[in-house]
Amino acid sequence: MNPSCPFCALDPAKILVQDPWVMTIRDTCPVSPGHTLILPKRHIASLFEATEAEQLALLRVLSKAKIGLDRELRPDGYNIGINDGEAAGQTIMHLHIHLIPRYLGDREDPRGGIRWIFPEKAVYWEDKA
Q1: Global pTM?
Q2: How crowded is the C-beta side of 104, counted as CA atoms within 13 Å?
Q3: Domain-embedded: residue 98
Q4: What strand order describes the sheet that includes 77-81?
Q5: Active site residue 96
Q6: CA 114, CA 110: separation in Å to the nearest integer?
Q7: Any domain includes 110
Q8: Is the Cβ–Cβ distance between 32 and 69 less than 8 Å?
Q9: For the chain, what is the radius of gyration of the CA atoms?
Q10: Considering the domain boundaries, does residue 57 fall inside one?
Q11: CATH code for the domain in which residue 82 is found
């Protein structure tokens, strides 16, 4: 527990689902409707610091969150990501997995998915000609 960490000091009313190791919340700056965060209760910065039990719990709850979003919002796909370390864009140093629902038409051409973090490398299929 880190009292200066926003994920360690969550309002219990914001927690959607939890088990002994993991909890889920909605992202406060969502990329799309239903953008959900899956995070361990223990304050760790990286997936690579998580125990095997925590990693399994994260994946189990990720799947449950997806099923819930399928029922609630019926998205057409998902992006799933972890920003691990400052160089990867992590701004809150408490491990969290982004589950981002995607909807047909939310981007003109969604090919490349998370590759768009480097736009010059996103359209890789044109280089294969």
Answers
A1: 0.91
A2: 2
A3: yes
A4: 17-18, 22-26, 36-40, 97-102, 77-81
A5: yes
A6: 9
A7: yes
A8: no
A9: 16
A10: yes
A11: 3.30.428.10
Contact 71, 64 (CB under 8 A): no
Give the Cβ contact number of residue 121 at 10 Å: 11
Helix (H) or strand (E) holding 22: strand 22-26
- 83's CB contacts (< 8 A; 6+ apart) are 89, 90, 91, 98
Per the structure, the count of domains in the chain is 1
Mean pLDDT of 69-91: 96
3-class SS shares of the chain: helix, strand, coil, % to 5: 35, 20, 45
From the list 35, 43, 96, 98, the catalytic residue is: 96
Residue 100 lies in a domain: yes
pLDDT category of residue 116 using cuts at 50, 70 and 90: confident
Q: Is 20's pLDDT higher than 80?
A: yes
DSSP state, residue 116: G
> Cα(118)–Cα(123) distance, rounded to whole angstroms?
10
Q: How far apart are CA 24 and CA 14, in angstroms?
A: 9
Position 88 pLDDT exceeds 80 = yes
Q: CA 60 to CA 26: how far, in whole Å? A: 17
